[in-house]
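Kindly inspect what follows.
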Amino acid sequence: MEALIASNVTKQYANHRALSEVSLTIPEKSIYGLLGPNGAGKTTLIRIINQIIAMDGGTITVFGEPLSSKHIGVIGYLPEERGLYKKMNVGDQLLYLARLKGLSRADALARIKVWLEKFEIKDWWGKKVEDLSKGMAQKVQFISTVLHEPRLIILDEPFSGFDPVNAQLITEKIFELRDMGSTIIFSTHRMETVESLCDHIALIDRSKKILEGPKKQVKEQYRSNTFVVEHRGNHIVLSPDRYQVSASRVVEGDLHSTTIQAAAGITGNQVLRELIDQTEVYAFQERLPSMADIFISLVKGDESLLKHLKGI
């Protein structure tokens, strides 16, 4: 079963088209990256899923059923604009939000205790939210998002305000939640976090979906048959009909690095065999596109990606 299917979702604000017939398929028990630049339409789609605003056209199903008010209880939402009550203390805040999601007082207290222990913040119970740092408040809001064990978790820029140590802690918890059966929609414009987190991705730009699929499959689409070789000396001669070779750069002493783009159909083994015949090879690897490369390619144009991948 798919966790969520959006079909031709459209949203118009006066003269601004926020979403234009966007269709997505989000597999169950996956981490799904909803990517795009600021203003692309990601947050509008998230608000529609959370039933904060209504779509103008299209359909959404959640776990095989048309989206309705009953799904509020199976969704956990961490918005980009954080919304804790500053004058309440942490414990009362978490208890209140858990009760809103339908937990009994006893269940809520038990789960709060578990999460405070996971984050090693048991002594925060009596702290007022207004006395917390941004990162501390983020932890509290993350806990409030997952306390009711939602099947579908939507995280909008969840790492904002976290230092690297706490960002890693949240990353570990996201993987744990996925492994326990939750589906996680991870919305961001920061490509560096997508590489390690997401199983599937979709890219939205200017209100339209322009790319969707398993992350590995998407990256495979954008391979440029480009290789980087570290070798002795600075002279490599390859057929210009089959290869485009960058100027070598010095790595150390007489050790150089050269980037080679091979014509379609030429394998890495073939490139390596030609290199071994004329130089001493120390390292050889294919340069695969990162999600940032692909993002730049689609949002700003293929030429920028090509130059970046070739390194020339």
Observations:
- The chain has a mean pLDDT of 89.
- The longest strand covers residues 2-13.
- The first helix runs from residue 42 to 49.
- The CA atoms of residues 212 and 218 lie 8 Å apart.
